[in-house]
Structure formats: structure tokens, C-alpha cells
Design brief:
- This protein has 425 residues and is of the alpha+beta class.
- The chain has one domain.
- Helix content is 26%, strand content 30%.
- The strands form six sheets. The protein has an eight-stranded mixed β-sheet with strand order 6-5-4-1-8-11-12-14. Strands 16, 17, 18, 19 and 21 form a five-stranded mixed β-sheet that branches. It has a three-stranded antiparallel β-sheet with strand order 10-9-15, with no helix packed on it.
- Helix 3 packs parallel to helix 4 and helix 5 (348-357) packs parallel to helix 9 (406-422).
Length: 425
């Protein structure tokens, strides 16, 4: 049985209580007042022989690196899966709760953040308890519901808008997991887009367009969907400025993604109605590296930098001395498919550079993975200016943004890990 690939899925509901401050926008005036859809932590465990990996998809804005470390330790204790083999990706929904602990929190918010790690770890434990023989295939499609958000005004100045000529990746990659009997089990759905269709005045809890896509996909396929967020640091949903009702736009973006995922799922399937597809070889592997990224010289916050939301202050990432910050890069191998992720809001150009150099047939690049230190822009973005390179680091309690050289270091480290996994058998 050593060469038999097994899979299991687990899910925990992580919806916060009403009144919890939501994370992601600075102009909210109070805590959440409605629950539009539940939030989930969904886990997939894959195992073959003595190797097991866990992939966790969470409907939250982010998790601080310190919390990820505690979570991995808890998962290892409860399942025996090494923390280095656990990948935790957050969707980055801006309608999800603050997840760290700080002095401004209410008692119920502190209780939520404290118990969150146990709920997530429980989803992995449940997935491991459901292991059964499986087959895995890969497919890809495309849906254009995202757009580069770095728009240069004609009068000068970079703003968060829509740049139709900017770098973009509309690919929908999907990893389909079926039981050996051909029954649907799980699907990893990868796409790069900020979940910010909902914004103030909305104060509702929601997974944003991810929740709509997941609901449609799971109802039609019977498989449990894990959404994996890509490198969407400079990518937003299309139509932010259009005169469209917020709920209508939420449905439009989410249903388009869900429909494309279903199409890819069907075409990549093993059922005879869609033709026989060769399963991926049952080779699993994991590798990671923690970089120390340099920070620029500290600057003073601009006079317009204000927030009414106490929970907007995300977390202080692990600092190395006074001028460096820790940034984890992790890669997983599933046959001829690779997942590689970074702990931040990575620009899409970096993901494309990694994919171009990857030795694997199929590579999914993930942002917001195993932590979130803030933005990792391209070197070219710095002279252009804008939110991501000028003020965003204040939200992360960092003294300054990472240096322009960080982008190249992240790409090189990602490719090196992929090359290392390609050699593993």
C-alpha cells in the first residue's frame, strides 16, 4: 500500500459572532452587523507511504506568521503531519474577521481569535481521519473577472483603479481529487483576485465572491472546494467603478468563477462521460525557506493616513533586527503539479516569473500563504508610487516597505524550492 495515494477532506465553520470588527478597510464605523454567508476552514490531506501533506484554505483576510507557527505545531501534535508539510492559504476576504490578538479587542473577539487555531487544526484532523484511496487530475481554464488595479492618472499619481493594460492572469487552475471508485471528493480551485467586491457601507461577514463560487461549485459537482488565492497583490475584481449594485456584482463575479471551475472540473475528470484521464503519479513532497527581506529607510506616515477601525492594525510580522522582516516561501509537490506560496501580498508579475521558470508541468503560485507581511511589489512599481509601495506597510505595523530587491529574492527562492522538489522521488 506504500504507493497508494490517499486523500481526506475536513471542514470547520469559522464564522465570527456579530459585533466583531472586520478586517481590510479603514473606513468601517462599527463591527459586523450581518452574516451574508458562513466562513470556513477547509483542509485536504494527501498521503502516500510515509509522506503526508496538508493544504488548508481559510476564509479570513490573513493570519500572522506567529499564529501560523502555533497552528502548525497544534496540527503536528494532533495529526503527526510535520508543520513543514502544512500549507495554510487565506483567501484575503475583506469581509472576514480580524484574526490576531491586540489590546483593542473585545472579550468575544479575543475568544474568537484564541479558538480559531483549534477550529482550523480540527479541520486537518478530520481530513486525516477520512483518508481513502484516490486519484488526482489537473485542469485549467480562464475567466476574465479580474483586472490590474494600479491605474496611473493622466494628471499623474498612481491610484487603486483599473488598468486594462496592466499585468494580469485570468487562469483558473484546478486539481481534482476523486475516490478510486470515481466519486467526487475535493477540488483545489486557484485564481488570483482580491475578494473586495463587498466594501463599506457593507458590514456583513462574507467570503465575498469566493463564497458564491464555492456554493455553486459544490452544489453542482458534489466535491468539496478549497479556494487557493493567487498572487493578487495588484489584482482586483473587475467593475469596481461600474454602476452595478454590490450584491449583483458579487453574484456576477462569483458565479462566473464558479461556472468556469465547474467546466474545468468536468473536462479534467475521470468519469467515462468525459473520457479517461491518466491520474497523476503519487509523488508527494514539501520544501520551505524563510527569507530575511530588507526594509527601506523608515518614513513618517502621511498626514492623510487615518483609520476609524481599531482592527485595521493587522499584526507586526516577525522582524529580524530593525531593518529586516521574515518571509516564508513554501512549495508542495503533488505528482507533476506544484504549489508554491509566499507570506504576503505578492504582485502577479512575480507569480508569472516563477511559473515561467518552474520545472513542473503545472505550477500554482499562492499569495497570503503561511502568514502575511504585506506587499511584495515588483521593482518597477517603486518609482511609480502608489498605495502598495508608499503607505500599505503602516497597516502591517512595519517601519517601512520591503526594498525593491525583495521581488527578485522571492522569485529565486520559489524556483529553487521547485527545482529541489522536482529532483525528489
Amino acid at each position: 500500500m506504500a504507493d497508494v495515494l490517499q486523500a481526506g477532506v475536513g471542514r470547520a465553520t469559522i464564522t465570527p459572532p456579530l459585533g466583531t470588527w472586520l478586517c481590510g478597510f479603514g473606513n468601517r464605523e462599527h463591527g459586523c452587523d450581518a452574516i451574508l454567508d458562513d466562513l470556513y476552514a477547509t483542509s485536504l490531506v494527501l498521503a502516500t507511504g510515509e509522506t503526508a501533506i496538508a493544504i488548508v484554505s481559510c476564509d479570513v483576510c490573513g493570519l500572522p506568521s506567529q499564529q501560523v507557527a502555533a497552528l502548525r505545531a497544534l496540527i503536528a501534535e494532533r495529526t503527526g503531519i510535520p508543520g513543514s508539510n502544512v500549507l495554510i492559504n487565506t483567501s484575503h476576504t475583506h469581509s472576514g474577521p480580524f484574526t490576531s490578538i491586540h489590546d483593542d479587542m473585545s472579550d468575544h473577539e479575543r475568544a474568537y481569535s484564541t479558538t480559531l487555531v483549534h477550529a482550523i487544526a480540527g479541520s486537518v484532523e478530520l481530513a486525516q481521519s477520512n483518508l481513502e484511496a484516490c486519484r488526482v487530475t489537473h485542469g485549467a481554464g480562464s475567466v476574465a473577472v479580474n483586472v490590474n488595479r494600479r491605474e496611473m492618472r493622466s494628471s499623474g499619481g498612481m491610484v487603486l483603479g483599473e488598468n486594462a493594460r496592466g499585468a494580469l492572469d485570468t487562469a483558473v487552475q484546478l486539481l481534482r481529487v476523486d475516490t478510486d471508485e470515481g466519486e467526487p471528493l475535493a477540488a483545489l480551485v486557484h485564481y488570483a483576485c482580491h475578494p473586495v467586491v463587498l466594501f463599506p457601507p457593507s458590514h456583513a461577514v462574507s467570503a465575498d465572491f469566493v463564497g458564491v463560487a464555492r456554493g455553486l461549485f459544490e452544489a453542482a459537482s458534489g466535491a468539496t472546494m478549497l479556494f487557493l488565492q493567487g498572487a493578487c497583490g495588484n489584482i482586483n475584481p473587475i467593475g469596481q467603478r461600474a454602476e452595478i449594485d454590490m450584491q449583483e456584482r458579487l453574484w456576477g463575479v462569483g458565479s462566473a468563477l464558479g461556472a468556469e471551475a465547474l467546466k474545468v472540473y468536468s473536462l479534467s475528470g475521470l468519469h467515462s462521460a468525459f473520457g479517461e484521464a491518466a491520474p497523476l503519479a503519487p509523488v508527494l513532497g514539501a520544501a520551505h525557506e524563510t527569507l530575511a527581506l530588507d526594509l527601506q529607510a523608515p518614513g513618517e506616515p502621511p498626514p492623510t493616513f487615518r483609520t476609524r477601525t481599531p482592527a485595521l492594525r493587522y499584526w507586526t510580522p516577525p522582524l529580524v533586527g530593525e531593518n529586516q522582516v521574515e518571509f516564508e516561501v513554501q512549495a508542495l509537490r503533488i505528482g507533476e503539479v506544484a504549489l508554491v506560496g509566499g507570506a504576503g501580498e505578492v504582485f502577479i508579475e512575480l507569480a508569472q516569473a516563477v511559473q515561467e521558470r518552474s520545472p513542473f508541468d503545472h505550477t500554482m503560485y499562492l499569495g497570503y500563504t503561511n502568514g502575511d507581511i504585506g506587499y511584495i511589489p515588483t521593482a518597477a512599481a517603486y518609482p511609480e508610487g502608489g498605495y502598495e509601495v508608499e503607505t500599505a506597510h503602516f497597516h502591517y505595523s512595519l517601519p517601512a516597505a520591503v526594498t525593491p530587491e525583495s521581488a527578485g529574492r522571492v522569485v529565486d527562492a520559489s524556483v529553487a524550492l521547485l527545482e529541489k522538489l522536482m529532483k525528489s522521488r
